[in-house]
Amino acid sequence: QITLKESGPTLVKPTQTLTLTCTFSGFSLSTSAVGVGWIRQPPGKALEWLAVVFGDDDKRYSPSLRSRLTITKVSSKTQVVLTMTNMDPVDTATYYCAHTPPIGSYYNNWGQGTLVTVSS
Amino acid sequence: SYVLTQPPSVSVAPGKTARITCGGNNIGSGSVHWYQQKPGQAPLLVVYDDSDRPSGIPERFSGSNSGNTATLTISRVEAGDEADYYCQVWDSSSDPVLFGGGTKLTVL
């Protein structure tokens, strides 16, 4: 059974850096085509994809946010960390991590999400 | 940049068929995936690779993709199908992953 869970601060101040951790189980991120991605959703708005890292350490980013994002596999290979710099109130959203299977371009398992509010 | 266009809302009576579209330039040349999201919950994959269903998703959910439009079809709609639905594509040449703007399905 695949599970994922997001953790991190619920409140950050403008200009600060957000660090979120996705802790997962039920699969290995050592398999090259398996991936863990991050997706966010501002309150009442649509899903927005942020980044993905694959088992071979291939990383892809949203072009519009690339300069602010870093996605990293933790050495234990059961965690993935996302950092987003220079946070702004418009970055207030629920942040989800999700699993993408081998030879798949979709997300078939999601974490419960964590709400991050950006406010001074 | 590539854009996926969904109608903001679709309404359907119980027992009838709902069709939710996702428009994009030549979207039929790639794979489209669909997610269902109920209030306060994470998205749930209901159709992948245009028309395949994950384990546990009822056969009432089906998909098609051709030309400039992909369609999620929900047959014999139930009250429990009321949710937001999002289409998603992968385009490695630009935005690797793109979601549509979402469609709110209302069961009358």
Question: How are the SSEs ordered, and which strands pair?
Answer:
The complex is a heterodimer of chains A (120) and B (108).
Chain A: E1 3-7, E2 11-12, E3 18-25, E4 35-41, E5 48-54, E6 59-61, E7 69-73, E8 79-84, E9 93-100, E10 109-110, E11 114-118
Chain B: E1 9-12, E2 18-23, E3 32-37, E4 44-47, E5 61-66, E6 69-74, E7 83-90, E8 97-99, E9 103-107
Parallel strand pairs in B: 1-9
Antiparallel strand pairs in B: 2-6, 3-4, 3-7, 5-6, 7-8, 7-9
Can you characterise this structure?
The complex is a heterodimer of chains A (120) and B (108). Helices cover 0% and strands 48% of the residues of chain A. Chain A is built from no helices and eleven strands. Chain A has strands spanning 3-7, 11-12, 18-25, 35-41, 48-54, 59-61, 69-73, 79-84, 93-100, 109-110, 114-118. In chain A, strands 2, 4, 5, 6, 9, 10 and 11 form a seven-stranded mixed β-sheet that branches. In chain A, strands 1-3-8-7 form a four-stranded antiparallel β-sheet, with no helix packed on it. Chain A is globular and about 40 Å long. The termini of chain A are far apart. Chain B has strands spanning 9-12, 18-23, 32-37, 44-47, 61-66, 69-74, 83-90, 97-99, 103-107. The N and C termini of chain B lie far apart (36 Å). Chain B has no helices and nine strands. With 108 residues, chain B is mainly β. The mean pLDDT of chain B is 95. The chains are: A mainly beta (120), B mainly beta (108).
